[in-house]
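REVIEWER CHECKLIST
Item 1: Sequence provided? yes
Item 2: Single chain? yes
Item 3: Sequence as submitted:
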Amino acid sequence: MDWHILNKVGPAGAALVFLSCLGLYLALRNGVYLFMVSRDFRHTLPDIEELPHYAQSLCEKTDNPLVGIIAGVVQTHATHSKDIRSEVDYLFYRNFASVTRGLTYLRLISIIAPLLGLLGTVLGMVRVFATLASRSAADSALLAEGIWEALLTTIMGLCVAIPTLIAYYHLSLKMKGFRIEAVEHSYRAVEGLGLTCPKPSVAPPDQKLNSPRIVAPVSASRRRSS
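Item 4: Structure as written out by the authors:
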C-alpha cells in the first residue's frame, strides 16, 4: 500500500479505504450465502407435482432458511393466522436477519462514501488556501497540486459508492425473488395441497416422570403354596 497517497488524502481517504474493504466483504459474504441458499433450495425441494417427496422434503428439518420459511407457514398456518403473506414476511425477516443487516450496511456505505469524499475535498481545499495565504506570492503550481490532491477523495468516494450501490440493488432483487418464491410455495402447500407437517409426539408428563415398575420374581415355594 502506498502510504504517501494515504497521507495526501488524509483521514477521509483512510476512512474510505476502510469502507471499501467492509463493503467488499459484505457484498461477497451475502452474495455467496444467497447463492448457496438458492442452490440448496432447488436441490432440497423437488417439483410440486411430486407430492410425497415434496411433503417429505418440506417437513424434514433443514438448515435452508427458505425451506424453513415454507415449513414454518405450513406448521403454524392453521393455528396462528390465515394471512399467509404476513406469516411469510415475519418468518422471512427472522430467517434472513443477518442478510438484511448486511444489505442495510451496504446501503449506508453507498450513502456515506460520497459524503466522505466531498468532506475530504473540502478539507483539502481549505488546507491549500491556508498554505497559499501564508505565502507572499501566489504559486499556480502549488495551487494545482493542492486541488489535485483534494479531488482524490471525491474520486475515491465515488469509486466506493457506485459498486456498493450496484451490489446492494443486486442482492435486494435476489431477496425479493426469494420472498416471491416463499409466498408461492406457501400458498401451494397450504391451500392447493393442504399439507400439514406432523408435530413431534411428546409423552405425557406422568409417563415421563414415573419410573418403570420392577416386579420381583416369585419363589418356587410360594408357587407351590398357592
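Item 5: Key structural point noted by reviewer: Residues 107 and 169 are 9 Å apart (CA to CA).
Item 6: Recommendation: ____
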